[in-house]
Design goal:
single chain, 189 residues, mainly alpha, Four Helix Bundle (Hemerythrin (Met), subunit A), two-stranded antiparallel ribbon, 8 helices
Length: 189
C-alpha cells in the first residue's frame, strides 16, 4: 500500500464517522430548556417531532424544577394518606364503615390522576422506550410506570369485590417514587 491509498482510506473512514454523527444528530431532538440542553428522541412515540410547539412545551414542563418539586410533594402527601387509612374493616368485616376511608378514597383518586398526568407527560416528552433517554430506559421509571398502571385498578368498576383488590396493595410502592424524584437518593441507592 502506498501513502496515497492510506490517506484515501483515512479520509473515507473520517467521512463515514462524520456521516454517522450527522445521522445521530438527525435522530436526536435537542431542546434548550431552563438554560440547559436536553436530548431526547427526535420523534416521541413516532408522532411528535422535536420542533412541534406542543412537544417543546411538554419537555419544558417535565424538565421544570418546580414540576419535580410538585410531584415530590404529591408523593409525600400520598404517603401520609396511606398512613391515615383505617384498616378496621379487615377486623370488623365488610359491614364496617369508615368515613375517613371514603374521603381518603376520593383523595387517592386525585393523586392517581396527578400521577397519570405526570406519566403521560413524560412519555410524550421523552418518548416511551425506543430512544436512549426515553421514559422506560431509566430503571427508576419502571417503578413509576408500574405504580401508575396498578393505580389504574382504582378506576375499574367493582374492583373491590374482585380478585384485583390485591393489586391495590401495590400502592404502598408510591413512596419509593421519591427516590426517582430526588437525585441524591438515587445516587445513594
Amino acid at each position: 500500500m502506498d501513502l496515497k491509498s492510506i490517506v484515501l482510506a483515512a479520509q473515507q473512514d473520517t467521512s463515514m464517522i462524520n456521516e454517522k454523527k450527522e445521522k445521530k444528530k438527525k435522530r436526536d431532538g435537542k431542546f434548550l430548556v431552563h438554560g440547559r440542553e436536553v436530548i431526547y428522541d427526535r420523534r416521541s412515540l413516532f408522532l411528535l417531532e422535536a420542533h412541534y410547539p406542543f412537544r417543546k412545551a411538554i419537555v419544558w414542563f417535565i424538565e421544570w424544577k418546580w414540576f419535580d418539586r410538585f410531584i415530590t410533594t404529591i408523593i409525600l402527601g400520598n404517603s401520609v394518606m396511606l398512613a391515615m387509612t383505617d384498616y378496621n374493616d379487615r377486623i370488623y368485616g365488610p359491614t364496617y364503615f369508615s368515613k375517613i376511608n371514603s374521603e381518603l378514597e376520593y383523595v387517592d383518586n386525585v393523586f392517581t390522576g396527578i400521577f397519570i398526568i405526570e406519566c403521560v407527560s413524560k412519555i410524550l416528552g421523552m418518548g416511551f422506550v425506543v430512544h436512549a433517554k426515553s421514559y422506560l430506559r431509566d430503571a427508576w421509571n419502571w417503578l413509576d410506570f408500574f405504580v401508575v398502571c396498578v393505580s389504574l385498578v382504582n378506576f375499574i368498576p367493582n374492583v373491590n369485590s374482585g380478585g384485583l383488590k390485591v393489586l391495590r396493595t401495590f400502592r404502598i410502592l408510591r413512596p419509593l417514587r421519591t427516590i426517582n424524584a430526588i437525585p441524591m437518593m438515587k445516587q445513594q441507592i
